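Pilot study result, target chain (433 residues):
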Amino acid sequence: MNFASAFWDIGLYAIGLAAIMLIYLPFSPMTIDLVNFSRDTQIAIYRRRHLLWAIGGLCLGAVLLRGLIGMLGANGVLDAGSRLTGSLASPHTAWFWITLVTIGFLVLLFWSGYVPYVMTPPSRQRILAAAEADKLLGPDDTVLGLVHGNEVRAYPRDAIARPHYFTDTVGNTPLLISYCILCNSGIAFKSELDGRTLDLKCVTAYNNNIIYYEPAAGNFIQQLDGRVIHGPDVGKSLVAYPVVLSTWSAWKQLHPETKLYYAPPITLRDKMVARMLQTLIPISKLSKRSKPWHRIRGELDNRLPAMSLVIGVEINDDSCVYPVEVLRRNPVLSDTVGGEPIVVLYDTEHDVGEVFSRKIDSGSALTFLAATKEGTAVVACDQETGTLWTAAGRGNEGPLSGRALAPIAHFNKLFWFGWVLFKPRTRVSATAS
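Predicted structure:
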């Protein structure tokens, strides 16, 4: 009898723990390497999490109930000979305490390290003028810079690294400012799809890149794909806008009118996770590695060092990367991607690069050459009009002075391995060879 009872306790405990750990393991930065499931498997587990929660809760709850009844019966609170006690009670009360401690441990694990709970956007934020932001940021702090409409915004990288995204409205456009620290990949998405507002949440990282989930529709979105990878709207792409990785001082010099999106961690958990990220995986540490932080599925492409910084552009399913080290030597690179004539302009003084269309007013493409002008941020000159251009894509002097080149959505200074894992057919700019 005791053997059979112990068998039930062990079996229920094992099934319950396995079900709950299956919910946790692929969705925590601390344990994702232990399983390294495929993307489809991770999505399947997340979609069935409610069923797994029910199985885990019922099994662990049954062990607790059996142990409680056994203790009450042993203490004379319940009739030890009653049918209820005889059929449900467990004389092995140690399993009651083991299960109770296990549940407490699981609560702590999920509270501190389960991505869907931990990676949530801030509940409070402020928009600060540059002068006020100077009190909060050092000149060498990295920001994600955005120019949209008539507004300029900066988002502190250390602050956005924990939630992986901020929500903001810039130039009357609702945006999701997305950043994945493991790939150093930042971009802005319009928070709309087919006319409905997107309310996204982080769920997991696949190949070191964050996956977002839209609960209302059941869509899953891979950040570096920029499109729905699973769900009713599979294949549909989000409207994207580029963000620029820059130091705070450089961004201010290039855009004096910028404002700062300030959203510091407030709760104990947010502060704890933010501190953990800054301590364990700062960009300075990541960039010195020879391989990604987490295990990957697939092979590393050795055309470039895995952790080298690149600017990645994809247009009409055609993609190309421009290594930052090459741009520092050749700050003006013209190309055609997906039929679109583009130019990559790099300001070597401020270590800032951006990508633009080479067309003005849908006309013929301009031809750009490197150029400088003392005391300005000029990096290029176009052959057709002789206009001088800054790395921000603005005409500085000449017939097109004051005009702006159309920005091209791209990933700015991300790690090469992240881009090529999701764009395996990508080209590397011929200038890099």
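One observation from the pilot: The chain is about 30% helix and 30% strand. A full batch analysis is planned for the follow-on phase.
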